[in-house]
Design a protein that fits this description.
The protein is of the alpha/beta class and 577 residues long. It contains 21 helices and 21 strands. Helix content is 46%, strand content 14%. The termini are far apart.
Length: 577
């Protein structure tokens, strides 16, 4: 009976490779396993020696009798365990931990050669300082070598002797003819097992794909039902301010047209409310209203969302294909919200749709005619975006046929009591109109002084906040959030100082500060009227303040711009007083 000596660096490698050889050769060959870190004798006498690596050969060659034939085995990844690696997210940093640098590097190369290259591997071995680059470690049976900083260990089991080395071993022992069929059958059996498992998973995957496709269809239909109806009308737009009523009058005239509307307004001013109202007052009111928010759709999904796709157009596509939002809006209106966020690459396609009134589904060669009314909206300055190269000029002029500007809440402060009371009654329907209006009486001066950067949406949030904060009675200034309280305190202080101010320069500064706090711009004529002095005196004082760096004079509606912080003016006025 032939005697084979198997020599490895570590105990686990030695044991695993011995079991592999024993499984192949059975009891016909005597196999002894040794490992350098433990049971390596001074001299090994055998018919043949197998070293598990170049490193084990370098370390243990002297322990083998000189006339003993030997080979250095090539080892492969234990493919029974590599499926664990596919559970680790792509791009994850992992430590590849092995008993030596060469072993770690070899394992990384083998994994990458097998196509398991979705991870970022970092070699780690005994004697090396922990690089602290990963929270996951992958190791071929050397879990005891993993540094303590690692949170998760994935053991892919010890690398085994590959089939080419097994064939070489059998050949050099002179027993290949007896074991070739068995070795081939064993190798094929393992492959058949993997193929059978693959078929099983493929069937499960196909079933899952069918179920996902069915659920996608259900969700799509539900989404379409929810997003193809306009519920708001012009009667739902609350407010009697001149700025708002002007916008409503213009919008009503636009409703009778088929031309494209471009709504430009700050966020939270009701752009979709106006868009739905225009649709419901138009001849297309019986058709669908479809809203698209470019800020909410990733660039990779824009084409499929807006144009649709045919079956098999891309991986994961529904087996039935899908209709795009432009087709959903046929015979109705499509609302392109936040159009300023549309990527440049998509703007070119959108321009063609607006010009040709045709779309083409992804994967299709056939164009589909669409009959839709376009309403676009943005809170950005599209002209400025054009100058920055972020928006196409030709698309802007194609959209800006019927421009509609909506006033900010700051520009329609007289509507604040009505809006606040309306929101309050939405949260507490049991309140009467009068009770809802009375609720805000103690804080109304602050609400009408505040600049409302979040517009109507911010006002609605404030009403809900106050309902949760104030258990009983009407809210007071102290219940408001800090920005509003600060404006109230500064405004009261400014009013008192303005009353006490002794000279015209101080009074002008304080009035400018007060108007700036409220977001207003004052000119010389308004200052003269408010202070009851000739405009020539205001002009003289203003020129003095320009020279001292307190203010800047601007042309047009900009008025007089205050250059010093409000805190500096208050402090200086108090000190001079």
């Amino acid at each position: 009976m032939k005697h084979i000596a198997l020599i490895a660096m570590g105990r686990k490698t030695s044991y695993s490779c011995r079991e592999q050889l024993h499984d192949l050769l059975g009891s016909r060959v005597n196999i002894s396993d040794y490992y350098i870190e433990g049971n390596l004798p001074e001299k090994i006498d055998a018919d043949f020696a197998v070293f598990s690596s170049q490193l084990s050969y370098a370390r243990a060659r002297k322990h083998v009798t000189d006339n003993t034939p030997f080979m250095i085995a090539r080892r492969s990844i234990n493919y029974h365990a590599v499926n664990k690696l596919f559970e680790i997210p792509t791009g994850t940093n992992v430590l590849l931990v092995n008993d030596a640098k060469s072993s770690a590097d070899d394992t990384i190369s083998l994994l990458q050669t097998l196509g398991i290259d979705h991870l970022n591997y970092y070699a780690y071995y005994p004697g090396m300082k922990d690089p602290h680059v990963a929270k996951v470690a992958v190791t071929p049976g050397e879990a005891q070598l993993v540094p303590s900083s690692i949170e998760k260990i994935v053991d892919i089991h010890t690398r085994l002797i590959d089939i080419t080395s097994l064939v070489e071993l059998l050949s050099r022992l002179g027993i290949l003819p007896y074991y070739a069929d068995f070795l081939s059958a064993k190798y094929v059996r393992d492959m058949v097992g993997f193929i059978a498992a693959g078929h099983h998973y493929e069937k499960e995957s196909a079933h899952l794909r069918q179920e996902v496709s069915r659920l996608e269809d259900v969700v799509t239909r539900k989404h379409q039902e929810e997003h193809t109806a306009a519920v708001y009308h012009f009667e739902d737009i609350l407010g009697s301010s001149f700025a708002l009523q002007k916008a409503v009058r213009i919008a009503k005239r636009f409703a009778t047209s088929e031309s494209t509307v471009l709504i430009q307004a700050e966020s939270g001013t009701g752009k979709e409310l106006f868009a739905q109202s225009i649709h419901n007052a138009s001849p297309r009111s019986s058709g669908p209203f479809v809203a698209v928010n470019f800020a909410a759709i990733t660039e990779s999904l824009l084409d499929s969302e807006l144009f649709g796709y045919v079956e098999g157009a891309f991986t994961g596509a529904s087996r039935h294909g899908a209709m795009g939002l432009f087709e959903r809006a046929n015979k109705g209106t499509i609302f392109l919200d936040e159009i300023g966020d549309a990527p440049l690459s998509f703007q070119i396609k959108l321009l063609r749709v607006l010009q040709e009134r045709e779309i083409r589904r992804i994967g299709s060669t056939t164009s589909v005619h669409i009959d839709v009314r376009i309403i676009a909206a943005t809170n950005q300055d599209l002209v400025e975006l054009i100058q920055q190269g972020k928006f196409r000029k030709d698309l802007y002029y194609r959209l800006n046929i019927l421009p509609l500007s909506l006033p900010s809440l700051h520009e329609r402060k007289e509507d604040i009591p009505l809006l606040a009371a309306s929101f309050l009654r939405q949260f507490k329907p049991s309140l009467s109109v009068q009770e809802a209006e009375d609720y805000f009486q103690d804080i109304l001066p602050v609400l009408q002084t505040y600049t409302w950067p979040g517009n109507i949406r911010e006002l609605q949030n404030l009403v809900e906040y106050l309902l949760n904060i104030c258990d009983t009675g009407r809210p007071q200034v102290g219940d408001l959030l800090p920005p509003m309280r600060n404006i109230y305190n500064s405004g009261a202080e400014l009013t008192q100082l303005c009353q006490k101010a002794g000279n015209l320069r101080e009074k002008v500064l304080l009035l400018l500060a007060e108007s700036a706090q409220e977001g207003r711009h004052l000119g010389r004529r308004t200052l003269a009227s408010s202070l009851h002095v000739p405009e020539s005196q205001i002009r003289t004082v203003c020129h003095e303040m320009v020279d001292s760096g307190d203010i800047a004079l601007t042309h047009g509606r900009g008025g007089i711009r205050l250059l010093r912080p409000l805190s500096d003016i208050l402090q200086r006025t108090q000190n001079e007083g």
